[in-house]
Write a structure and sequence with these properties.
about 375 residues, binds uridine-5'-diphosphate, Rossmann fold, alpha/beta, seven-stranded parallel beta sheet, single chain, 2 domains, six-stranded parallel beta sheet
Length: about 375
């Protein structure tokens, strides 16, 4: 091992195995970061639920897969729900393994939005870091993250400033953005094509608003993503004229990017304070302008008039009229923004410098 090589343990989300789609954007974040950290010469050990595989091209990393019952995701519980850990749950088992590995590693990086790893921060000797993947969805989680981050600010990073604003912090947040393996995304410069929407099919993603925009334009909306809530999906289907929604299901990145790139525009309609908005940046990586609500991460990722248009949150009429202004956007400018700010290389360097600055340096 060289002096500058770090041994890093990356702990995945406990709500599904890597590749299942249940982990939403966290899965892609982790996959880009594994590649980016390996390219920087670090040793990477991934701890993830059983069924997970290392992303393609990451054979130099090690993976430890752990059996156990999936953790329920916080965004699908009531905001005042208590902490639940199922019997034989995978979450504590992931942390048994991670803390053992952490005894000899330089740092353990947590990607799971859960009570247990955050609480552990102050109670273990290993250098534990958290990349927080969501904004406020639970009083218990928001209070815990705020309290522990005030005591240990250097141990917490966020994807965007807007996400970090959901937490009561006593210093400027560490913001690391996100990163994408741009070799996997091809730019398509053709401006004609359908209106697209991508994301988990769940109420916080606001698909119904994008469907209303397509219906108002008497157009079709192509939709990609995992149906997490089938009652919600059927209610949306029934709310729009037949044929408005073209359901394409959950696709792997290579196929998703091909189809995304053929769109003239992507609509992004979050109803929550989206921490980042991977699909926004993935569309831009393919040259697709994005029209989004000016809420959460997408409000920081899109430059109105350059890479798309931001419209007031929940304003379906404004979004509908912005669709006609999409030809004012240069598709190459969308890709350039991603190359500059959201490549896996840039992201891995931001994460690396956060960790290097803070290992062996406790805040207290
Ligand atoms: N996604 C995918 N295939 C699909 C639709 C979505 O792999 O057919 C992925 C997409 O690449 C993105 C994630 O699902 O990484 C959604 O992440 P985002 O940050 O947009 O939202 P989250 O689900 O984390 O709230």
């Amino acid at each position: 091992m060289t002096n500058s090589q770090l041994e890093l343990v990356l702990v995945s989300t406990p709500i599904g195995h890597l590749g299942s789609g249940a982990g939403g954007g966290v899965e892609l974040t982790l996959s880009s970061l594994i590649k980016g950290l390996l390219d920087l010469g670090h040793k990477v050990i991934v701890v993830a639920p059983d069924g997970s595989d290392l992303p393609t091209g990451c054979a130099q990393a090690e993976i430890k897969t752990i059996k156990g019952i999936d953790q329920p995701s916080w965004q699908h519980q009531l905001v005042d729900a208590p902490v639940i850990i199922p019997n034989k749950g995978v979450l504590p088992r992931l942390w048994d393994e991670a803390l053992e590995l952490g005894k000899t590693a330089d740092a353990v990086l947590n990607f799971s939005y859960d009570w247990l790893p955050i609480w552990l921060t102050q109670h273990v000797q290993v250098d534990l870091f958290h990349l927080i993947s969501m904004g406020h969805v639970s009083h218990t989680m928001t209070s815990l993250i705020s309290e522990v981050a005030c005591l240990n600010p250097s141990r917490f990073a966020f994807h965007t400033q807007r996400q970090a604003q959901d937490y009561s912090l006593n210093s400027d947040p560490i913001v690391v953005g996100n990163g994408f393996d741009l070799g996997l995304y091809q730019v398509q410069l053709k401006e004609e094509g359908p209106i697209g929407w991508a994301g988990r099919i769940a109420p916080e993603k606001g698909l119904e608003d994008a469907v209303a925009v397509a219906a108002a334009l008497e157009d079709r909306l192509v939709v990609w993503g995992l149906i997490e809530d089938s009652d919600y999906a059927s209610a949306i289907e029934n709310s729009a004229p037949q044929g408005t929604i073209d359901w394409r299901g959950f696709l792997i990145t290579s196929e998703l990017q091909k189809q995304l790139g053929s769109c003239r525009v992507l609509l992004n309609t979050p109803k929550w304070n989206e921490a980042y908005g991977n699909v926004v940046v993935e569309a831009m990586a393919c040259g697709v302008p994005v029209i989004a609500y000016d809420r959460g991460g997408p409000g920081e990722l899109i430059t109105s008039g350059v890479t798309g248009w931001l419209v007031p949150p929940d304003d379906i009429r404004a979004m509908t009229s912005a669709v006609s202004r999409v030809e004012e956007i240069n598709r190459s400018a969308c890709r350039k923004w991603v190359e500059r700010f959201a490549s896996k290389e840039a992201f891995a360097k931001r994460v690396e410098s956060w960790i290097i600055k803070n290992i062996n340096n406790r805040d207290e």
